[in-house]
Specification:
By secondary structure, the protein is mainly alpha-helical. The chain is built from 14 helices and 6 strands. The strands form 3 sheets. Strands 1-2 form a two-stranded antiparallel sheet. It has a two-stranded antiparallel ribbon with strand order 3-4. A two-stranded antiparallel sheet has the order 5-6.
């Protein structure tokens, strides 16, 4: 049986991006929600809920970006000039946010300033992640084997829409994370906040789903023409079912893990829908994964190293979340 390494690498990069959204999405969402918890005790609990794991989440972002550069160099060479500015701002925000995370514990006099930095860094990073997604999804101009557009082609109404969608969606993940990891008044407030955030997330999913087929003829054909419609219709149906279950879980107070898992499922379905739209293109509607792929020997060499490191990363991540499972409180940490 022939193993297509190009598809393997496409799956690895897609999985890394999905893992980043899952693991760092709620982390950034907590920063977005920070202004709604002005009290120091609540903020300390929120920070403690992710303190043991937050700095490992960006590993998946590095794997996704580094994997794209190594396995699909042509796609990297075309896409990066198209989104340099939003990616640069996003990375600066992530760095600034990481510094603020550490410094707020060490500077009593300037704690408020570092809290504001944490809020801004989280919100800006989430917004520009969405903007970057929208910029890639709407298509980039290609001239031969180079980016053929301008430095601000990424700034459109659609990319702003996707940016806002990611901010609201991450905030939903953050709220449901707090439902799972905390108790008492802090948990009750998070549960109440999750309702409008879930409504907003579903609204943005619907808006982007309606706008996407108009971006490229191939998107319209993929989703709305027969017989493709028979195979794509279950995705919006599944989104509707998961949405209903999410709202139901937020009504039942004994459901503490379920809202977070259902919110992740909602993100997973949207990510799957994105894959339906763009596959097999890595530069949507322009360059396929096979056209952008590195030589076969390079892919094989990179895969050998990845096959060793990826299980180690997965094991470390799973172990960290297992050790720090359970609730976190203001006075006694995890219990």
């Amino acid at each position: 049986m022939h193993l297509d390494l190009t598809i393997v690498w496409a799956a690895i990069i897609a999985s890394a991006i999905a893992a980043y959204v899952v693991l760092d999405g709620f982390d950034l969402g907590l920063g977005i929600l920070f202004p709604l918890y002005p009290g120091k005790p609540d903020r300390d609990v929120i920070m403690n809920s992710v303190a043991p794991v937050w700095d490992g989440n960006e590993t998946w972002l590095v794997l996704g970006g580094g994997g794209l550069f190594a396995a699909f160099p042509l796609a990297f060479a075309i896409l990066m000039p198209a989104v340099y500015l939003p990616v640069y701002i996003m990375l600066l925000a992530l760095i600034f946010r990481g510094v603020a995370f550490e410094f707020r514990w060490r500077s009593e006099r300037r704690r408020g300033w570092w809290d504001a930095s944490f809020i801004c860094g989280s919100t800006i990073a989430a917004f520009f992640q969405g903007v970057t997604l929208g910029a890639v999804l709407q298509g980039v101009k290609v001239n031969g084997r180079m980016f053929g557009g301008g430095p601000f082609d990424w700034c459109t109404a659609f990319s702003v829409l996707t940016g806002l969608a990611v901010v609201v969606g991450y905030a939903l993940l953050g709220a449901t994370w707090l439902v799972m990891k905390t108790d008492g008044p802090l948990q009750d407030r998070a549960r109440r906040m999750a309702w409008p955030l879930a409504v907003g997330t579903v609204f943005f999913i619907a808006a982007i789903s309606l706008a996407t087929p108009a971006l490229e003829p191939s998107y319209h054909t993929r989703w709305l023409s027969m017989p493709n419609l028979v195979f794509t219709a279950p995705v919006p149906v599944a989104v509707a079912v998961v949405t209903g279950l999410l709202f139901r879980s937020l009504q039942v107070h004994r459901h503490e893990y379920r809202p977070f898992l259902l919110a992740l499922a909602l993100f997973g379905l949207t990510f799957f829908g994105l894959g339906i739209s763009v596959f097999p293109y890595v530069v949507p509607a322009r360059i396929t994964i096979w056209e952008a792929a590195a030589p076969l020997m390079s892919q094989a060499f990179l895969l050998a190293g990845t096959a060793i490191l990826l299980p180690m990363i997965l094991a470390y991540t799973a172990y960290a979340y297992w050790v720090f499972r359970g609730k976190v409180g203001a006075d006694h940490g995890y219990h």
